[in-house]
Amino acid sequence: MEKSSTVSQPVPQKQKEVDDDKQDGRLQVEQGTTDEALTDQKAMAGEALNRRSIWEPSVYYALGKESFYFAGHDISIRESMDSYGALIWPGAIALCQFLENNQQQVKLMDKAVLEIGAGTGLLSIVASLLGAWVTATDLPDILSNLTFNLMRNTKGRSRYTPQVSALTWGQDLERHFPYPSYHYDYVLAADVVYPHDYLEELLKTMRHFCRPGSQTMLLWANKIRFQSDLRFTECFKSSFNTTLLIELPQQEVRIYKATAKE
């Protein structure tokens, strides 16, 4: 029996040049994507620094306080430097204003409302003051400040005591929020799209809570800052029946309503 052997054939020079060009192209695309992400992150960090109003120095970290007036109440929000989720962003303010000014269009009274990426809790506070039964969610390390703000601004004011729960986008959704046991009339999201690595998980989370036939309405407000925001918006539109409710050119904020495609 003959022993078979495999002999490596040299790559023709022309083919090698093509392959090298392809490799160089891939590297350039990857480098461009990385550079874009780094630039976006730097811009986001700069915007975060500009979000401050009043700072109180602390031994461990700095806290800022923002004051608002919504739904007939003064609202005081404690911010933190710890993460983007501990700041108030323009999309949240815009959506609060929209909910207050359009109560006939979006009727929150006695409705079950979930906020994803609740951050400081401003949007959940306003929804609660407008009569909704609210569950505010975010990453575990955000919950302490979120709970503080919610309790501080809704105790003795709201129809229902708002709930706080940990939610990591895209992870263990069926286990922690099984459908239809956890069904919501509205899902709120404000400025959840920015340079981070979890946009696919965010979209998966939106789909989990806004399923075909559920009648759940998703209200998403976001400042459009980067190309990645526009790319996410296209994916969002392909997953949901969407309507642009309002666009605020000065703030560069858009507010969408959406329901699941059948």
Summarize the structure.
The protein is of the alpha/beta class and 262 residues long.
Q: What radius of gyration results from the CA coordinates? A: 23 Å
Low-confidence stretches: 1-19, 22-33, 53-62
Distance between the termini: 63 Å
Mean pLDDT: 82
Give the total of beta strands: 10
Mind describing the biggest β-sheet? 7 strands, mixed
How are the elements arranged and paired?
Elements: H1 13-50, E1 54-56, E2 63-70, E3 73-80, H2 90-101, E4 112-115, H3 122-129, E5 133-138, H4 143-154, E6 163-166, H5 173-176, E7 186-190, H6 199-209, E8 217-223, H7 227-239, E9 240-248, E10 253-260
Parallel strand pairs: 4-5, 4-7, 5-6, 7-8
Antiparallel strand pairs: 1-2, 2-3, 8-10, 9-10
Walk me through what this model shows.
The protein is built from seven helices and ten strands. The strands form two sheets. The protein has a seven-stranded mixed sheet with strand order 6-5-4-7-8-10-9. A three-stranded antiparallel sheet has the order 1-2-3. Mean pLDDT is 82; it is low at 1-19, 22-33 and 53-62. The chain has helices at residues 13-50, 90-101, 122-129, 143-154, 173-176, 199-209, 227-239, and strands at residues 54-56, 63-70, 73-80, 112-115, 133-138, 163-166, 186-190, 217-223, 240-248, 253-260. A hairpin with a 2-residue loop joins strand 2 (63-70) and strand 3 (73-80). By secondary structure, it is of the alpha/beta class.
